[in-house]
Amino acid sequence: MSFWDIVWFIVLGLLLVVYLMLLFSIIADLFRDHELSGWLKALWVFCLIVFPFVTASIYVVTRGSSMAGRSAAAALKRREDEADYIRRVARGDATDPMAEARNLLDDGVITEEEFARIQRRTLG
């Protein structure tokens, strides 16, 4: 193998990786889109398998801007879900268990004695 054969092999390998990344991002976008019917999604996937380069090019040209919007919306939702989870799990304040215990007492789930025990344990 000559030097240029190796360079050509590396370039083709990189192009294959780029195409596979594009293919998987198109498929992920198809299943993320709730406005598109199931039959149209199946048709896009079928065309991606039969005519991969043409279909990928058409998809990016026709649905590229909405693809970016759906991706940004999904990232924002993930970020909000993560922030909500962190807020729920990370309890840095002693008043949070007290507020939760007060809600349980108001709902009738725990008694006054249990509330007093939680209050003593929380406040030290």
Automatic annotation (TrEMBL):
This is Phospholipase D-like protein. The lineage of its organism: Bacteria, Bacillati, Actinomycetota, Actinomycetes, Mycobacteriales. It comes from Nocardia mexicana. The chain crosses the membrane at residues 6-31, 43-61. Keywords: Membrane, Transmembrane, Transmembrane helix.
